[in-house]
Amino acid sequence: MKFVDEFRNGDLAKRLAASITREADTGRAYHVMEFCGGHTHAIFRYGVQDLMPANVQFVHGPGCPVCVLPIGRIDNAIELAERHGATVCTYGDMMRVPASERRSLIKAKAAGADIRMVYSIRDAMRIAREEPQREVVFFAIGFETTTPPTAVAVRDAQAEGLRNFSVFCNHVLTPPAIQSIMQTPDVREHGTVAIDGFLGPAHVSAVIGSRPYEPFAAEYKRPVVIAGFEPLDVMQATLMVIRQLNEQRHEVENEYVRVVTREGNLKAQALVAEVFELRESFEWRGLGEVPSSALRIKDAYSEFDAEKRFALGTRKVRDAKSCECPSILRGAKKPTDCKLFGTVCTPESPIGSCMVSSEGACAAYWTYGRFRQSGDGTQRHKEAAA
Amino acid sequence: MCLALPAEVVSIDRANETAVVTLGGVKKEISVALLNELEVGDFVLVHVGFALHKLSPDEAARTLRMIEEAGEDPLEELSA
Ligand code: SF4
Hints:
The complex is a heterodimer.
Chain A: H1 10-23, E1 30-36, H2 37-45, E2 56-63, H3 65-68, H4 71-82, E3 87-90, H5 105-110, E4 115-117, H6 121-130, E5 136-142, H7 147-160, E6 165-171, H8 174-183, H9 185-188, E7 197-200, H10 203-208, H11 214-220, E8 224-226, H12 231-246, E9 252-254, H13 266-275, E10 276-278, E11 281-284, E12 288-291, E13 295-297, H14 306-309, H15 325-329, H16 361-369, H17 378-385
Parallel strand pairs in A: 1-2, 1-7, 3-4, 3-5, 5-6, 7-8, 8-9
Antiparallel strand pairs in A: 10-13, 11-12
Helix pairs in contact in A: 1-12, 2-16, 7-13
Chain B: E1 5-13, E2 18-23, E3 26-31, E4 43-47, E5 50-55, H1 57-69, H2 74-79
Antiparallel strand pairs in B: 1-2, 1-4, 2-3, 4-5
The structure holds iron/sulfur cluster (SF4).
Iron/sulfur cluster (SF4) binds next to helix 15 of chain A.
């Protein structure tokens, strides 16, 4: 109960932990996948796993946009700057993600490429306005929370005639990724990864609403509970998953009613639909090709599509040898299963993408793991699985 | 990058779909193109320079406290 002291409302956390322990049936295990990196971060930051009984386990999912982007796409971004002489603007987290041959955007920048870190796509548009002689490309990544801003930017760029601006679109979708996890051989055939229920993302769901998870919950018979990012939210939502499983229900429930509705933000959804369309398939690190899981810019806005403007090709690049990111992103392995964890690979010198962003499982383990006294949970995970 | 911050709307420019918000005394112009109804004094969740949705003042205070407790500096994120 050490970490409970750090909760703002320690009493409530203790009561929730007690309810979970009381209600979790000792005759079975509960494997709860938190899809979203924001939850992974909260679970580690507050040691939520340590408050759970041994038969309630969190399985970390692929909801870290930086982590799931395949290396080939980062190579593409470097190519835009180096070969095409473009000014590549991107969110800070992307700068240190390892590309091929141990390169990264930050190393390319150090070698002279014009790569700039921005807080918002609006900053990239401002650069394009201020430097009309440069081709400015925004390296767009992220789930449903960052997609609407990109849609607004593309729409506005067209309205304004900002012709030296374009977007390298890598936006991905949450529901197909969750679905794809249920179809990986680890889950379906080998049974090496057990997932009994899901914690659904907070802000993503504020945009898309809770409805898109409904077919998933029904088809795979897994409860989905949308949870806020506070540790108490995570615990409350976990209790809701446990109750559903005890009652053999598999519904979409919403713990985060303070913000999430069933419909979501309709205006944002309409803007996204105006500018983007589904790609047939997109490669995810860890999940491989996932059908209908990403967006591209529609033809009506194609002049702002950097992939077309610079005729970028897709290439498949293998992940660094011995980096276990792909298995970790599927929930099949834990960071401590990786030989390089904390030795060769640290946040200062990451080998894989999961060690870069604070939402990545390896970075979260490394940053908060050292405060743990009771081991890292791996042992208990194995015991619970046995 | 998934960090989203609550901020209070101090002025709105409807023609340009922008608003000035304040967070801990720091003012910043953001886009409000994703929201339908908005008034001065509302709290919004700001993510990558865009208001994603409206928040109640309670929820805003709660989110901000959590971010501070997590040892992250909200202002650093806004000014990056
Ligand atoms: S510790 Fe580093 S090398 Fe190992 S899986 Fe994580 S990111 Fe990859």
